[in-house]
Amino acid sequence: MFTRPAAKSFYLVAGRTILIEAFDEWIQRAVSEIFSGWFFTLVPPSINADPNATIRIHRVLELPIIPPGLKSFEITCDGTCFTDENRYYLKFENALVGFGSEMHVDFRIAKRYDCSSSGFVQLLSQALSPALRRSGVFEIHSAGVLPPESESTIMIAGASGCGKSTLTAQLANLGWSYLSDDILLLAEVDEELRLQAFRRFFALTRDTLAAVGLATMKSEQVSHLKQRITPQDHFRRAPVEQSKAAAIVFPTITRQGKSQMTALTAGETMRRLLRLCPWASYDKGTSLEHLRVLGRLANSAIGFELLAGTDMLNDSNLTAHMFLNITGKNF
């Protein structure tokens, strides 16, 4: 039996339009509250929007049964992906995300979460990512900072724990402009490769807050490890919503005293980007476009490996000096 959604909401992100079909009012309120903390713009009902992709969100008593005989592999958030490389099912404890070659994603959830809880936010992100990819928008685990007087971004790319947020907070606290401390969106806008900020807040550990002298900042809990802060309330610069990439720094925190920065070839940069973007290979429906855009980024932005020692992590001015040293190479 066909069921009409309780509400339809159109959001503009990175030049694309995402339609959210919510099949009850709780879902609509939860999504609206979460998106208000991201760089997603609600399109007024008076505007006749044509979506690039759709996410259909249902609350169900029981999750559907996944077809048998599919390959499986583990994914983030303690989930498992089941696939025949035409259809994909992302199975979590209380949720199922399904997508394929169509321009829509089905998200079914069998538990009523607190709409602001990190659990629900993570599950919604798992449904959003394939919808964005089907719109030509690709996530990268990367922070983004802009040196003084520059309109181009230095990306700080890497998995959790590599130092993205610490380095970003150090530089933002010195007056550098910034896009994000954790996730950037990559898309072609008017044939130009652009970086788009994803969320409006920073999520910083207590150690990071203390390391950059921000331990007394007003914040709220975003997870058991991190505090959520609104950066423009504390840093001198307002966030930059969109920019182009000029350099990519791949940091690793070491136990060494002295930090080192080494330039990478375009091939080395591409290999590191692929490790951060596994869905460029997994999601066959979008992999060609995903790989092409990542290749364009690797060839247009010079890459660097950063071994971040204790000297850098304890001295924001040294971080700024090392980052400024690379700007002359590609800015």
Structure description:
Strand 16 and strand 17 form a beta hairpin. This protein has a nine-stranded mixed beta sheet with strand order 3-1-2-4-9-8-7-6-5, with helices on one face. Strands 10-11-18-14-13 form a five-stranded mixed β-barrel, surrounded by five helices. It folds into two domains: 7-136, no CATH class; 143-330, Rossmann fold (3-Layer(aba) Sandwich). It has nine helices and 20 strands. It is an alpha+beta fold and 331 residues long. It has helices at 25-35, 118-133, 164-173, 206-211, 266-276, 279-282, 287-300, 310-313, 316-330; strands at 7-13, 16-22, 41-42, 53-59, 71-75, 79-83, 88-91, 95-99, 104-109, 137-146, 152-157, 177-180, 183-189, 192-197, 202-205, 220-221, 226-229, 242-253, 260-264, 302-308.
Features:
about 325 residues; alpha+beta; Rossmann fold; 2 domains; 9-stranded mixed sheet; 5-stranded mixed β-barrel; 9 helices
Largest sheet: 9 strands, mixed
CA-based gyration radius: 20 Å
Number of helices: 9
What's the architecture of the largest domain in CATH terms?
3-Layer(aba) Sandwich
Mean pLDDT: 90
**Spatial order of the strands in the main sheet?**
3-1-2-4-9-8-7-6-5
Query: Structural class of the secondary structure composition?
Result: alpha+beta
Assembly type of the chains comes to single chain
Distance between the termini: 57 Å
How many domains? The number is 2
Strand residues, percent: 25-35%
Poorly predicted spans? none
Helix content: 25-40%
Order of helices and strands: EEHEEEEEEEHEEHEEEEHEEEEHHHEHH
Identify the overall geometry. Answer: globular
CATH topology of the largest domain: Rossmann fold
CATH class descriptor of the largest domain: Alpha Beta
Number of strands: 20
